[in-house]
């Protein structure tokens, strides 16, 4: 750790001079030979400035810390903190071992290649053929639990054998990298061990609305919570009685679109064959995750229908306003139906005349829809486009 006085990559240098970095080749050879990995940092990227003015000003990241595989095994969350360049031409850097980092326990993930082993497939079949007493749902849940436990145990036992094979592969790859660099290959690929790579898989810092960087682990989480709470909550929440009244009023214009036959088909009990078809339509390597109620929501066929029903209610209210004249639609060309809105997934396009009544009516419908459904319109992703014939005084 310290001032290496050497830039390793072009991204570590900011200047008008874009020529090849002198000394980078020898430095990379030295680092790879000693099996050292650059410790990740947070804060300003550059740690040195030549303090010149104009086009001669230069910034570089030459202060850094390198760690070995053994180091990352002991301190997998190690990181470097960069502070601003103030008094000296160098920025202070601080080594943080992150010994008290709050790491949540991650679920064990099974490699897809495990299922290509006949031994593993046989193990799963044997477990599934075991007799379990109880309701059908309980039997399936218990068998899935046994499969998960036994396959995990089998994979962990195999890991010792696989690790040796991967170590041999790493040694071969590392030697090939050294040969490639010595042969003049400009593309340098660095090898980071699993522990070092895992330390990068989290958010180091975020900017608050004032533009200040926040690095504290707890404050970063609060920042995300406050942002999404403000985005999806704000003042749209109403009490239950008011919500029921708004919902009843909003659904009065809901037009019947499902026939009696379709209704009977939707209300009939589902069959085992239908459940099997729905489950096996998911990808072979996909897994549905349980929500808070224990219901699998990945691949849930009801989700898109619920969203369509909400949008159908919005469409019905727009059509009612269109029919009573409070919302004036647009005819795109002669000989076609007038159009007031188009839906595509969660995107909506409205077509209105540039008059106060239409704008006011649309705004009132959207406000009611947001209060009833709990959805919020994203103003940052919304826009307005006027016809070239629109008068500015009118708009």
Distance between the termini: 63 Å
Tell me the strand percentage band. 5-15%
Q: What assembly state would you assign to the polypeptide chains in this entry?
A: single chain
Percent helix, as a range, is: 40-55%
User: Which strand order does the major sheet show?
Assistant: 2-6-5
Global morphology: flat
Tell me the number of helical segments per DSSP (H or I, 4 or more residues long). 11
Derived structural class: mainly alpha
Order of helices and strands: EEHEEEEEEHEEHHHEEHHHHHEEH
Number of domains: 4
What is the mean pLDDT?
A: 76
Count of DSSP strands:
14
**Main sheet overview:** 3 strands, antiparallel
Radius of gyration based on Cα positions? 31 Å
Describe this structure in words.
With 395 residues, this protein is mainly alpha-helical. It has helices at residues 24-33, 69-74, 118-128, 136-182, 194-198, 217-232, 240-251, 260-267, 272-280, 302-323, 356-373; strands at residues 2-3, 13-14, 37-38, 41-42, 48-49, 59-60, 63-64, 66-67, 79-82, 93-96, 206-207, 213-214, 341-344, 347-350. The chain has four domains: 2-96, no CATH class; 112-201, no CATH class; 202-232, no CATH class; 238-282 and 296-381, no CATH class. The strands form six sheets. The chain has a three-stranded antiparallel β-sheet with strand order 2-6-5, with no helix packed on it. Strands 4-9-10 form a three-stranded mixed β-sheet, with no helix packed on it.
